[in-house]
Design brief:
The structure holds three protein chains of three kinds. By secondary structure, chain A is mostly helical. Chain A has 14 helices and no strands. In chain B, the strands form two sheets. In chain B, strands 1, 2, 3, 4, 7, 8, 9, 10, 11, 12 and 13 form an eleven-stranded mixed beta sheet that branches. In chain B, strands 5-6 form a two-stranded antiparallel ribbon. Classes of the chains: A mainly alpha, B alpha/beta, C mainly alpha.
Chain lengths: ~300, ~450, ~290
Amino acid sequence: MRTGSSVCAHSCMKVGMYMQELRYSRYPIEWLFPVVILVFMFTAFPVGFAIWNSLHQIILVLPTTPFVGLKNYKDVLISPYFKEALLNTLLFTVTTAPATVIISLGIARLLLTKFFGRAILRPVVLLPWAMPGSVAGILWLWIFHGQWGLLNGFLLKFGIIDNYIPWLMDSRLAKLTVSIAHIWTMVPFATILIMAALTTISKEIYDAAEVDGAGAFRRLVFITIPQIKGMLIIALIYECIMGLTTYDTVYSMTAGGPGGATTLLSYFIWAEAFKLLNFGTGAALGVIMAIITFALIMAILKAIPSDIMVKE
Amino acid sequence: MDEKRDVPGVFKERMSRRTFMKRAAAGAAGAAVLLGPGVNLLAKKKDALEFVVWNYSLETIQDNISKFEAEHPGIKVNLTDYTWPTYHDTLVLRFKGKTTTDIIYNGEDWLPEWAAAGWVAPLEDYFPEVKKYKAKTANYALADMTYKGKLYGLSYYADLITFQFNEKILNKYRIDPPTSWDEVLEACLKLKKDARLAKPFMYEYNQTLPNFLQAFMSQVYGRGGDFFDANQNPVFASSSSEAFKHMQFLQDLNVKHKVLGYSDHESKVNIAMNTGQHAMTVMYNYMLAAMNSPTSALSGQFNMTLMPGKAHGCLGFAKFYCMTSQCAKDKVRRQKAWSFIEAFGGGDYRIAKRWAVEKGLGFAALPLMDDPDVKKAWSTWIDMNKFKEQAKLARNGTQTEWMGMWSEFFRPLMAKAINGDASVAEVMEQGAAKWSDYKQLLTG
Amino acid sequence: MKVAKKVLIHFLALVVFFFCISPLLLTLIGGILPDAALLSYPPRWFSMKPTLAYYKYIFLGIVPQAYEERGAMRGMITQEARQIPNSMLNSAIIAISVMGVNIVCGSMAAYAFARVRFRGKSATFLGIVMCRLLPASAMVVPIYLVVQVMGLLDTKFAIIMIHSLLTLPFTVLILSVFFRRIPIEIEEAATVDGASRMQVFTRVVLPLSTASMVATGLFAFMLSYSEFLYSLILSGTDKTRTLSVAMAALSTNTDVAWGMLMAGVFITLIPSLILAIVVWKFVVEGIILGALKY
C-alpha cells in the first residue's frame, strides 16, 4: 500500500539505485552480443594466426615452416627498406593527423555559424569522403601531374610559372602533395565528429563567457577545446591509425616513388606476404606496426588526459 | 556484492534474458536461412571450370568463352577477373586458401615459383600431345612456358618490350631513330634544346610493377648484356657489366642531363606521349597500338625501332593458359581443362589471331607472323618487318623460383638508383647479395 | 567590425568550398571534355566541344563516335566501364547494411559501456577497440580462410560482416563518449517514471544523440563504400564487385580513355552526394533538439 510519502521514498530509492550503480550488474550480453561475437570471431583467430606466422619461417615456395623465434622480427628491422619507410610513415602520420584535426575543427566551427550558402557547403564538405582512396589519388594525380597536370596548366596559363613544376618527381614536393591529398580525404570525417561534439556544448557556458568579456579566440581556446577534448583526441587517434595503415591514396599517386620518398610501411606488410611470398616477415611487420600504433595512441592518451577510455 | 542478484523493479533484467534467448534463436535461424542457399549454390557451380584472368578486354574473353561453350556442349566456364597489379597477390591468396581454380593466366616470372610451390601442373605430363605445338612457338615464349624441362601451358599472348618513339618529332628535327644509347642521349639533348622538350625520354617508373625490372632488362639485352651467367650467378655487380653501365646511364639521364620523365603506369605514359612533350620511351610493344589508336591526340605519329645497343636484343615474354594442380588431380576436370587450353592457346590459333588483329597483342605462334589478316591489321600501327626483325633477336628473362621475390626486393633499389638517391654500385651490390641469398635458400 | 567578420566568414567558406569540391568539379568537367583537349600541352582545355559520349557508353552501351573512325583498332574500348552502375548498386547495398549494423548494434554496445557497470568491462572495451591496431593487410589471409571455410566467398553477406568488423570499434568508441556526455539526470527521470533500460535507451538517449548517431552512421557508410582491400579479396564476380574494385580496375586499364574514367568517377559520387544532402537534414534537426534540451 503506497502512501504519498512512501511513493516518494520508493522513487528516491530507485533513483538512488540507478545512481549508485556500485553494485555490478551481470554482463549485459544482449547489448553487446553482435559486436562481441563479430569482433572476437574475426579478430582472435587472425591475431593468433599473425603472431604464430611471425614466429615461423613461412616462405611459400619452401615446403617446411620451422619455428625461428624472433628471427623474422630481426630480419624486418635490419632490412634496407624498413628504416626509410618507418621514417616516412612517422613523418607522414605526425604531420597529417594534427593538420587534419586542426583544419576540421576550423571547418566544423565554420559550419555551425550562420552564413549564406551554408546549406550548400555542408554536403560538399562530405564529398571527399565518398570516394575510394585510390580514386582520390588519381584525381590528385591529375591535378599535380608533372607533365599534364591541371595545376601546372593553370599556373602556366596565368603566367605564374614558365615551366611545369615536377610535383611528383621531386622527393620533397612528392611528400607534400601526397600529404595534401591524404588530408583532403580525411577532413570530412573529422569535421563531422567535431561538429557533433560541438553541438553538445551547452550555450550557457558561451553566454557566460561573453558576459565576462571573452573574445572569440579566448572562447575557442578556453571553452570550446576543453569541452570537446574527448572527441578531438578520438579524431586524432583515428587520423594516426589511418596515417599509419592506409596507402591507397599515396600509392595511386606516386607508387611509392620517386626513389623511396613516399614509400610507406603499410605497403610492405602486403608486399612481404604476397610478393616476397614470406608470410613470416609479413606477419612480423604487422605485429611491429601494431606495437607502434599502440605506443602512439598511449602517448597521445597520456599526454592529454581525458575520460574516453572507460575505467572500472 | 552479488552480481547475480538483480535490483528488483529498477530494470526488468530477467525479462530481457528470455527475450535475448528468443532473439538469439531467431538470429541463428536467420543465419541458417541466409547460408543455406549459399551453400547450395556453391555445390551447383562446382561443375563449371573456374577460369581466372586479369581484366584486359573482358568482353573479348567472354565472347571467346561463349563460342567455346557452343562448340563444346558439356563444358561450362566461369570467369573471374582481378586487376593486373593485384593479380599475382590475389592468386597467391586463392592458392593458399585452396579456392576452386582450374585454369589461370600465368606469367613467365611466376611459373617457377608457382610450380615449385606445387600450385600449377605440367601439361606435358598429362597430355603429351601438347608437344606438337613446341615447334610452332617462338623460342622466348617456349622458354618462358617451360619449367624443369616440362611445358606448362599454351600461350595467351607473347610480346616484346621495345623501344618506341614519336616519329614525327624525330623527323621534324632530323634525328634518325637511335641505334645506340649514346645516340639516345644525343637525341634527348638536341630535342631539349631545339624542340624545347623538358623531358624527351618518358620512363614507366613504378617500383611496384614487375615490368619495371623487365623493361630495364630489355634495354640491357639491347646492349648485349645480361644480369646472370649460364649458372644463374649474378654478374651485374661488376662495373664492367652492361647492366651496371646501363643503370649508370639511366641515372645520368635523369640526374645529370635531366631529360628523363616519370609516369607511373603505361596508360599514363600513353597520355604523356600524346601531349607531344616526349619523344621516346620503352614499353610493352602493344602500347604502340594504344598510342596510335584513333582516339589519341597524336594518333599515327608513333613507331618502334630495334632496341638501341650493340646487339639490338630485347626481352620477349609470354603469358599463357595454365592448369592448376588441383584441377589436374580430377580426371574429368583436367580433360575439360585441356580442351579449353588447346582451343584457346593452340588449335588453329584463331583466338591468338583475334587478339593480334583486334588489339594488337603480340603472339607466340610463328605461323601468325605471316598471316595476311594480321599483317593488314598491324600495318596501321607498326612496321611489321621491324617487328619480325626484333622478335628474332628477342630472348626471355632468367626465370627461377625466386625471381619474383628477388624482383620485388630489387625494384625499389633500382628506383632509388635511377632517381639518384643511391649509387649504382651500392644498389647492384645489394641486389647481387640478395640474389645469392635466395639462391642459397632455395637450391641450397 | 561585424561586416569585416561576415566577409571573413564568407571568404573562408569559399576557400573551404573550393578545397573540397575542386577534384570533384574536375571529374564533372573531365567526363564531358574530349581527351585531346583535356590532356593537351600547352593547355587548350576548352578548345573542343563538350560531349556526353562517355556517359552514353556507360549507361547505354553506345560506342563513342571517335572509336568508330579509321576502322582499325575499333576494339580499343572496354566494356568494363559498363560495370559501373552494377558495382555502384552493390556498394550501395553493402554500405547501407553496414550503416544499419553500426547504428543498431554499435549504439547498443556503446550504451552498455557508457552506463552499465559490469565485470570485464574494461577488458571487453579494450578488446573491441584494440582489434583495429593490427593493420588490415596483416589479417587478410586468416580472414579469407575463415570466410572460405564458412562458404561465404563471393557473397555480400561476408563483405558486410567484414566491413562491420572494421567500423564497429570506432563506432562503439565514439558513441560511448557521446552517451556519457548526456546528463544522467535525464535518464534517471525516465527511470523514476518506470522505464526499463531499453526504454530509456530508445526513448530518451537516442533522440538526444541524433547528431552523433548520424555521424557514426555516415562514417560506417562511407568507410564501407570506399573500402578496397577486403572488397577485393572477398569478391570474384559481378554479384559482389564493389565500386572501389571496379574503379581500381578501370583506372589501370589501358583501353579506358581518361574522360571515360572521369565520367565513371562522377557517377560514383552521386549516391554519396544524395545521402549527404538527405542526412544533413537529420543532423540539423538533431542539433536543434539537442540545443533546446540543454
